[in-house]
Amino acid sequence: MEDTEAKGGSTFSRQHLVEAIVGMTLLVLAFFAIASSDISAAGTRAYWNLLVPLFAVTAFASDRIHAGHSIGHLPSAITIVLHWLGVFLAIQVVHYFVVTGRMANADIGLTNGLVLALGTYLFGVYSNWRMAVIGLALAAATTGVALIEEFVWFLFVIAAIALLVLFFGARLIRKHQPASLHNRDMG
Question: Which band of pLDDT confidence, cut at 50, 70 and 90, is reported for residue 2?
């Protein structure tokens, strides 16, 4: 994969493609959670409870691939677990607010979307820029859903922009990295 790129035969590596697909999948799953919560807030609690660990596992894998940490690197693993536990608990608090009547049922998808967007963005800031792009796209989509009635087309636009940034951003960053970093972060 890297040899082909070094020879100039391939514009994009399989890793770039896989990372873009994973990023797009995370966005689509989060968009679905936001849209579904608009229809049935109580019915999507289990979905949100599964979505946060999925983002956490993706973040863990991303950290291992791009930060150069081994699988057993305990300090970074604890940081990641605590970070995503905080996101998970914040979403639980949002659900508690709805159940106790302190928050409108219709607002749960937007609030959870912003909590997940912030958690993803912050993870990206301290670990991997790709997660920051996903967090920003999720925040933009959540804001768009709040402001625009017919939001499905808007989600597609945000997803397409995020896909382009993930796909081409990795290539641009790789192109401008010193040669010594290519082996550590192949994206």
Answer: very low
SS (HEC) of the chain: CHHHHHCCCCCCCHHHHHHHHHHHHHHHHHHHHHHHHHHCCHHHHHHHHHHHHHHHHHHHHHHHHHCCCCCCCHHHHHHHHHHHHHHHHHHHHHHHHHHCCCCCHHHHHHHHHHHHHHHHHHHHHHCCHHHHHHHHHHHHHHHHHHHCCCCHHHHHHHHHHHHHHHHHHHHHHHHHCCHHHHCCCCC
Confidence of residue 4 (pLDDT cuts 50, 70, 90): very low
Question: Nearest 5°: phi and psi at 59?
Answer: -65, -40
Q: What is the pLDDT of residues 145-174, one digit of tens each?
A: 887 766 666 777 777 788 778 777 766 666
